[in-house]
Amino acid sequence: MGALCVLTYIGVGLVSIVGAVKLYFKMTAGKCKSTRRIDGQVAVITGSNQGIGYETAKDLARRGAKVILACRNLESAQKAADRIKKETNNQEVIAKKLDVSSLASVRQFCADLMKEESRLDILVNNAGVAGMRRTITDESLELHFATNHFGPFLLTNILLGLMKKNGSGRIVTVSSVAHTWTKELDLENLNSEKQWEPKLLYARTKLANILFTRELARRLKAAGLSGITANAVNPGGVKTAIFRHARKTFKYMIMVSQFFFKTPEEGAQPTIQLCVADSVEGLTGLYWTDCKQSRSSTLGDDMDVAKALWEKSVEVVKLSDSENNLK
Ligand SMILES: *[C@@H]1O[C@H](CO)[C@@H](O)[C@H](O)[C@H]1NC(C)=O
């Protein structure tokens, strides 16, 4: 056999393996099969100017909801809203400024929303960052934790005031399988006070999303708000812009692996299902992968850690009595 022939075999072999892996990802992706309409409902989706958030917003708009795109970049959100309006023929798509990494911005956004809206049915905590340089916000929060956990924590707590009015609603927080990378969560180091561990930061924020969801579901039940559910979702590997500000090496790694990843439309399916499907009605405090209930890491199941994280978060965001809707 000539060298060329061997190379051809290796080449064909590699292409087949890559193809098979890609096909596997496609086939296990999961799809929201619900055709339910949600006319009259109001939905807030953070980070919805692109990616999974955008696809989720578009889908909910198509189903008749009034959709609020809550984004840091208002101009980009406005363009996204215009595109969704055009594509879905739903004119009730609104872009609003929200920098979820800033507690002040969260409070401002909520104050405006409570004035303008009389109900809230769906809240999707989707905005997130990964692989950022070490940054402490002017509110002394570490940027990953500020954006991925503390901001959504405050946003959800305040907006529960609006959701409670109707007594039913769905809160979906976008987590990730990356939460399994970490085996511990030091509550005294959430804002990198003691140590800066860039590799595990994203994982820890995604773990926090699950713990937050579990404790939120428990508190909703305890407060007699069983019509409001909270779930965390792992969208799977999705081609997203989450790493757009990431350091170079991280970026290249992601770019290569993205070849296998889902499109944002596919990646949005599990989130959409949790927002609208009748099949998940009443299910709460759960972690989902590819539209199916799944297990988180052991740490993600630990209700003592979940409770401690909640209490710590109340302290960090200085949740006031009037912002606490789960008394
Ligand atoms: C909640 O909203 C639905 C749909 O608009 C409505 O039928 C229901 O009466 C509302 N419930 C409360 C308690 O306001």
Q: What's the short version?
A:
The protein contains ten helices and eight strands. With 327 residues, it is of the alpha/beta class. β2, α3 and β3 form a beta-alpha-beta unit.
Largest sheet descriptor: 8 strands, mixed
Helix content: 40-55%
CATH homologous superfamily identity: NAD(P)-binding Rossmann-like Domain
Radius of gyration: 20 Å
The CATH architecture is 3-Layer(aba) Sandwich
Indicate the overall shape: globular
Keywords: Membrane, Oxidoreductase, Transmembrane, Transmembrane helix
Pfam family, one: adh_short
Transmembrane segments: 6-25
Protein name: Retinol dehydrogenase 11
Describe this structure in words.
- The protein has 10 helices and 8 strands.
- Strands 3-2-1-4-5-6-7-8 form an 8-stranded mixed beta sheet, sandwiched between helices.
- Helix 5 links the parallel strand 4 and strand 5.
- With 327 residues, it is α/β, with parallel strands linked by helices.
- The chain has one domain: 3-Layer(aba) Sandwich (Rossmann fold).
- Bound molecules: 2-acetamido-2-deoxy-beta-D-glucopyranose.
- The site of 2-acetamido-2-deoxy-beta-D-glucopyranose has 3 residues, from loops.
Protein topology:
Layout: H1 3-27, E1 42-46, H2 51-62, E2 66-71, H3 74-88, E3 93-97, H4 103-116, E4 122-125, H5 143-166, E5 169-174, H6 198-222, E6 228-234, H7 248-257, H8 264-267, H9 269-276, E7 286-289, E8 292-294, H10 303-317
Parallel strand pairs: 1-2, 1-4, 2-3, 4-5, 5-6, 6-7
Antiparallel strand pairs: 7-8
Bound molecules: 2-acetamido-2-deoxy-beta-D-glucopyranose (NAG).
The site of 2-acetamido-2-deoxy-beta-D-glucopyranose has 3 residues, from loops.
